[in-house]
């Protein structure tokens, strides 16, 4: 039953904007939506704070993060894996 609940958590993929904090990263999540009037695709982005226990991610890396319990005032996500390293 524990595994079933964990599977329902949100998972997002994004790019690391900042890794200056200890055990924390800021990830930009991009999504494309259709403009309600002009029907043109418009990019929207969100900045999410994520927990990085081993300080593994660096700026520019593509990472996968998962929703978790509140870890601090802003952190509600944790790093699952580094998908691709920055070049």
How would you portray this structure in words?
The chain is 7% helix and 51% strand. It is mostly beta strands and 87 residues long. It has a single domain (2-84), classed as OB fold (Dihydrolipoamide Acetyltransferase, E2P). The chain has a 5-stranded mixed beta barrel with strand order 1-2-3-5-4. Strand 1 (11-18) and strand 2 (24-34) form a beta hairpin.
Give the topology.
Blueprint: H1 2-7, E1 11-18, E2 24-34, E3 41-51, E4 62-67, E5 77-84
Parallel strand pairs: 3-5
Antiparallel strand pairs: 1-2, 1-4, 2-3, 4-5
List keywords for this structure.
globular; OB fold (Dihydrolipoamide Acetyltransferase, E2P); 87 residues; five-stranded mixed β-barrel; mainly beta; 1 helix
* Gap from first CA to last CA: 40 Å
Q: What is the name of the CATH topology? A: OB fold (Dihydrolipoamide Acetyltransferase, E2P)
Mean pLDDT: 94
- The oligomeric state of the chains shown is single chain
Give the uncertain stretches in residue-range form.
none
Indicate the CATH class.
Mainly Beta
What is the overall silhouette? globular
What is the SS-derived class? mainly beta
How large, in whole angstroms, is the Cα Rg? Answer: 15 Å
Question: What is the CATH homology-level superfamily?
Answer: Nucleic acid-binding proteins
Largest sheet: 5 strands, mixed, barrel
Q: What's the helical proportion of residues?
A: under 10%
Order of helices and strands: HEEEEE
CATH architectural category: Beta Barrel
